[in-house]
Structure to design on (184 residues):
């Protein structure tokens, strides 16, 4: 349980009090987030975001409420948001893979396939350079998130975020084409 004086000091902007809170709860919050997300990198990011949120909202802290409970609530909310992002990326990847695998090699389907690829390439050309590269590596080259991150020198979370944005954009741009092709 946190001392009321510590909470009051944090509310008043005392950085040393906040550092004490950070050092006392960092590991607990990290393991809490890790239990939910099963990823070291994501758990670290969630932990950092949790403490940033506490600091940014310090002026609104209610001394009558449990700061410890608030810390875990914020960490839980960030964890669930990350899981939702991961699920959306996975769904979009599955749709695109299904699209590619459902195309047959018959003459008519080959023409449709080439047209579809041209449409996909045209849409991909609209993506920012790095986002396009991440999308190509993941969807076309079947590279793992970890491999993409290491090769491009960026965090896995940045890779996932950029991949989500790219796949969402491609899906929006090709919505009617994807729908028609997936149901053939």
């Amino acid at each position: 349980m946190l001392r009321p004086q510590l909470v009051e000091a944090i509310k008043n902007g005392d950085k040393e009090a906040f550092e004490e809170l950070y050092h006392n709860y960092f590991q607990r919050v990290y393991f809490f987030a890790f239990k939910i997300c099963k990823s070291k990198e994501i758990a670290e990011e969630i932990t950092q975001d949790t403490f940033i949120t506490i600091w940014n909202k310090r002026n609104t802290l209610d001394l009558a409420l449990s700061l410890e409970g608030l810390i875990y609530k914020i960490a839980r909310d960030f964890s669930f948001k990350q899981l939702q992002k991961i699920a959306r990326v996975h769904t979009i990847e599955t749709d695109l893979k299904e699209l590619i695998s459902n195309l047959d090699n018959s003459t008519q389907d080959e023409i449709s396939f080439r047209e579809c690829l041209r449409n996909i390439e045209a849409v991909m050309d609209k993506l920012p350079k790095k986002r396009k590269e991440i999308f190509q590596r993941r969807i076309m080259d079947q590279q793992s998130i970890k491999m993409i991150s290491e090769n491009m020198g960026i965090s896995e979370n940045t890779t996932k975020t950029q991949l989500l944005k790219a796949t969402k954009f491609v899906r929006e741009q090709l919505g009617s084409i994807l729908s028609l092709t997936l149901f053939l």
Q: What stands out?
A: DSSP finds nine helices and no strands in the chain. The chain has two domains: 4-83, 103-182. The two ends are 60 Å apart (CA to CA). Confidence is low (pLDDT under 50) at residues 180-184.
